[in-house]
Design a protein that fits this description.
This protein is of the alpha+beta class. It is 25% helix and 32% strand. The protein is built from 5 helices and 13 strands. It has helices spanning 63-77, 84-102, 197-200, 205-214, 217-230, and strands spanning 3-11, 21-25, 28-31, 39-44, 49-56, 112-120, 124-130, 134-139, 142-145, 168-169, 180-185, 191-195, 237-245. Strands 2, 3, 5, 6, 7, 10 and 11 form a 7-stranded antiparallel sheet that branches. Helix 1 runs antiparallel to helix 2. The longest helix is centred in the middle third of the chain and has 19 residues, at 84-102. It is globular. This is PPM-type phosphatase domain-containing protein. Residues 159-169 have a biased composition (Polar residues). It comes from Streptomyces polychromogenes. Residues 3-244 form the PPM-type phosphatase domain. It holds the Pfam family PP2C_2.
Length: 247
């Protein structure tokens, strides 16, 4: 039977006081907390499986509340998602629920989160994102970004920017976000990396690619985390490695 192996971890990094990232792997969620080591979960290929990272918006209140709301809602809706339309509807629901949760609560006003992930179906895979969390395909030809950053171009001389142009939540005045959704085929050996910008800001794609070429699953997740920490760990670090296997 074909299977999906997902190895994930979440860590606060070295600078932030607490973790505002949340993670969903099918029925399993990890909300605004940390893992002591990479965790691997295995699922049969066939039923819809959502794997996603939600990164609470830094500089805004209650980012961890927004990211947890999105992770838990995607986990609950995951088994009902059958294609691009139902996935977009689910992300609209997430945006609505984050904004609704903030109404009447000044301490939650403008809370928001990014999200990025994959929906693995029986014969295809959908990549989705809102904001600057990312999804990469990691194949024999190297690392390839398959999500779309919702960010303005970085300033001259800089590789990254902390600004985002759309999020889930952030108040209704910001408008309804338009998720990026794309489809690809599915084959044994396919491998994807889903991560927050706490990984990609300190590490260039070339370094991420080198780690993924050298290691699989738990060791790769650990080495990516270690490299981000060695680079200063400036933000929360959350990642999930998704591998399609066959027995």
């Amino acid at each position: 039977m074909a299977y999906i192996a997902v190895t994930a971890l979440s860590h606060a990094g070295l600078v932030r006081e607490h973790n505002e990232d949340s993670l969903v792997v099918g029925p399993w969620t990890l909300c605004a907390t940390v893992t002591d080591s990479p965790q691997t979960l295995v699922f049969p290929l066939g039923r819809p499986l959502v794997v996603a990272v939600a990164d609470g918006l830094g500089g805004q209140p209650a980012g961890e509340v927004a990211s947890a709301l999105v992770a838990r809602r995607l986990s609950a809706l995951g088994p009902t998602l059958t294609g691009p339309d139902t996935l977009r509807d689910a992300l609209d629901v997430c945006d609505y629920e984050v904004n609704t949760a903030a109404e009447g609560h000044p301490e939650l006003f403008t809370m928001a989160t990014t999200v990025a992930g994959v929906l693995v179906l029986a014969e295809s895979l959908l990549v989705f994102n809102v904001g600057d969390s990312r999804v990469y395909a990691a194949g024999p030809d190297g690392l390839r970004r398959v999500s779309v950053d919702d960010s303005p171009p970085p300033e001259p001389g800089r590789r990254t920017t902390s600004a985002v142009t759309q999020t889930l939540g952030g108040s209704r005045a910001s408008g309804t976000p338009v998720p990026h959704v794309s489809a690809s085929g599915l084959a044994a050996g396919d491998r994807y990396l889903v991560c927050s910008d706490g990984l990609t800001d300190p590490l260039p794609d070339e370094e991420i690619d080198a780690v993924l070429r050298a290691h699989d699953d738990g060791r790769a997740a650990f080495e990516l985390w270690k490299a981000a920490i060695a680079a200063g760990g400036p933000d929360n670090i959350t990642l999930a490695l998704v591998r399609i296997g066959a027995t």
